[in-house]
Amino acid sequence: MLPPYTPEDYKRILETALLAAGEPLPLAELKRLFDEEFDDDTLRSLLASLRADWADRGVELAQLAGGWRFHTRAEFQPYLERLKNERPPKYSRAVMETLAIIAYRQPVTRGDIEDIRGVAVSANILKTLESRGWIDAVGHRDAPGRPGLYATTRAFLDDLGLRALSELPALADLERMIDGVEEPRGISLVAAADDDEPVSAAATMAASPDAPSTPAQ
């Protein structure tokens, strides 16, 4: 295929790159596919047309926090689960509650999480969530000891198929979405044996009198 390209040629190039990519691709990366210079609006128009081409298929082109990616439509995910030999991982109470608090109250310190949960938070839980790529330290609170502030990452939004924190669902729906996310090999989100009973993360948040109805921006 040699230039000059037609719009359909550009779309096929984008389609090939996105299908081959292992992670979402931002516009800046997609522009590297072409010798010609594209402005963002032109590239978004091509991507929107490509997304429309896939509108009636089991896979869709989605715009996520980290860029554009093809992924399975949610309604077809239960069928794919039948092909898996192992059940999706069940996350522990401590992990789910910690992640939920960070997602809906961010940025928060470890002390904030402990105040809401009413129990100590294991450093291993925070390290595990950081290793998973779902949370990160984003600064320090101006307080004695300058405790670290934690927030969710773009990878967290990408794994849940979201573009922004404003799209975070209700807590019960968040748990169901997380249950469907596969763990990378070598990473386990199950906490220590004394805190590994899977329960609703919504319980802790609901018990807090000042729990927000919408996620922090």
Set out the fold topology.
Layout: H1 7-20, H2 27-31, H3 40-53, E1 59-64, E2 67-72, H4 77-81, H5 93-105, H6 110-117, H7 123-132, E3 135-140, E4 148-152, H8 154-160, H9 171-179, H10 202-207
Characterize the structure shown.
The protein has 217 residues and is of the alpha+beta class. The N and C termini lie far apart (45 Å).
Write a brief structural summary:
Helices cover 42% and strands 11% of the residues. By secondary structure, the protein is of the alpha+beta class.
Average pLDDT taken over every residue: 82
Percent helix, as a range, is: 40-55%
User: Uncertain spans, ≥5 residues at pLDDT below 50?
Assistant: 196-204, 206-217
Helix-strand makeup class: alpha+beta
What is the CATH topology of the largest domain?
Arc Repressor Mutant, subunit A
Helix and strand run: HHHEEHHHHEEHHH
> What's the β-strand tally?
4
How many structural domains? 2
| CATH homologous superfamily title of the largest domain | Winged helix-like DNA-binding domain superfamily/Winged helix DNA-binding domain
Give the C-alpha Rg. Answer: 20 Å
Main sheet characteristics: 2 strands, antiparallel
The appropriate CATH architecture of the largest domain is Orthogonal Bundle
